[in-house]
Write a structure and sequence with these properties.
Helices cover 82% and strands 0% of the residues. The chain contains 3 helices and no strands.
Length: 148
């Protein structure tokens, strides 16, 4: 049976992963904002597309392709960040279980931490790629706006 000291020690060790969960939640929030803006822009373009022709239509179709790519990157980034958060939750649960049943699960906790950081790294790399795509998108064509 674990002692009060054992449980207190596990709680102290679980604080760092909880901060990591907070950071992941902030990243997910930023990603959801970018996803919403890209989807809104796609919907606007899709509504305007039937009325356009020629070079304007070609520009809109090219932007729709770029938006589809950006949406895909953000979606995968969100999936990796959620996976990272789930792994951190498993890590915290495993740490508490190890203390409660007096088992050495340090290797499992280390593997979960490495996997969580790996998923978070992948998330951030995809996020960076999506930001670059958005920032470096051609801005020479006039922006198409819905008439008020």
């Amino acid at each position: 049976m674990p002692t009060f000291y054992d449980i207190t020690h596990v709680i102290q060790l679980a604080i760092a992963p909880v901060f990591l969960l907070t950071a992941i939640a902030s990243i997910i929030n930023a990603l959801l904002g970018r996803l919403a803006r890209a989807i809104d822009r796609r919907r606007n373009l899709e509504d305007l597309l039937p009325a356009c022709e020629g070079e304007t239509r070609a520009d809109m179709e090219a932007e729709l392709k770029l938006l589809a790519r950006r949406i895909g990157l953000v979606t995968w980034s969100i999936a990796l960040s959620v996976l990272s958060a789930l792994l951190v939750c498993l890590l915290i649960g495993t740490a508490f279980m190890g203390a409660y049943v007096a088992m050495d699960l340090s290797r499992t906790v280390a593997i979960l931490f490495i996997a969580a950081v790996g998923a978070l790294t992948g998330c951030l790399l995809l996020f960076m790629r999506e930001v670059f795509l958005a920032a470096l998108a051609p801005h020479g064509a006039p922006r198409i706006r819905r008439a008020a």
